[in-house]
Design a protein that fits this description.
Layout lengths: L1 H5 L6 H11 L4 H8 L1 H18 L8 H15 L7 E4 L5 E4 L7 H6 L1 H7 L21 H32 L12 H10 L5 H8 L3 H18 L1
Antiparallel strand pairs: 1-2
């Protein structure tokens, strides 16, 4: 979702490339057309306004300034609830159905990496920095503390995952006995990043036939078995 929202920004080629890869597995456009028509109408204008407000330069590169902006934008752009209605039951009683309300915290959370980059808190968009509490705190100082704790947890998990990937890549066999055009090395790096890739996904990601993907997956398993 973050890459989808960020892809309109042509200055971030990493986001565009990542979105293109993700769309080989799940095309968000087809899913939105099938399931999300009402939501696109309801949240489209809100998203554009929130993005514009959150990316305006910040007074200082601090989490407090980001928290203040988040609270202000949330207050300004919260979508009004739809009207309730009265329902008459079969025995003649009248019941009032409460109006539906639509929160926008999830939408602001998706744009949090953009807000952090616009504030100068990070040098670039970091997709994993998308956390916000379900209900925003009443004060900016409290929200800033929650953001600090959440981003710290996310950063620690990211470093742990990076260490794991670097260890795996360092142990991958360097001599696979294949030509330079072979996609076996690429597949082995993909499987290190995305454990459990199935043959259909391998075929889509590498642009090869399912039969070729199955053969390549078997070669990758064999190479790892021989290595260890």
């Amino acid at each position: 979702m973050h890459f989808l929202l960020l892809a309109d920004d042509s200055s971030d080629p990493v986001a565009r490339a990542s979105l293109n890869v993700l769309r080989t597995l799940l095309d968000d456009r087809a899913q939105a057309e099938m399931w999300g028509g009402d939501d696109l109408v309801r949240f489209g204008q809100t998203f554009r306004e929130a993005r514009k407000r959150l990316c305006v330069p910040y007074p200082s590169p601090t989490l407090l300034s980001v928290a203040e902006r988040l609270l202000a934008v949330h207050k300004e752009l919260e979508i009004s609830p739809t009207e309730g209605r009265s329902v008459t039951t079969i025995d003649g009683r009248t019941l009032h159905v409460d109006p539906r309300s639509f929160g926008t915290v999830w939408l602001l959370a998706c744009m949090l990496p953009s807000a952090l980059a616009a504030a100068g808190f990070t040098l670039q968009h970091i997709p994993s920095f998308v956390w916000l509490p379900k209900f925003l705190s009443s004060g900016p100082a409290e929200l800033a503390e929650e953001l600090e704790a959440a981003l710290g947890r996310t950063a620690a998990l990211g470093l742990t995952e990076l260490d794991r990937l670097e260890r795996i890549v360092a142990t991958l066999p360097s001599d696979l006995g294949v030509t330079r055009r072979s996609k076996l090395p690429t597949l082995m790096r993909l499987e290190a990043s995305y454990p459990g890739l199935r043959v259909p996904a391998i075929a889509r990601l590498l642009g090869i036939s399912p039969q070729g993907a199955a053969k390549l997956a078997a070669q990758a398993r064999s190479a790892v078995t021989v290595r260890y």
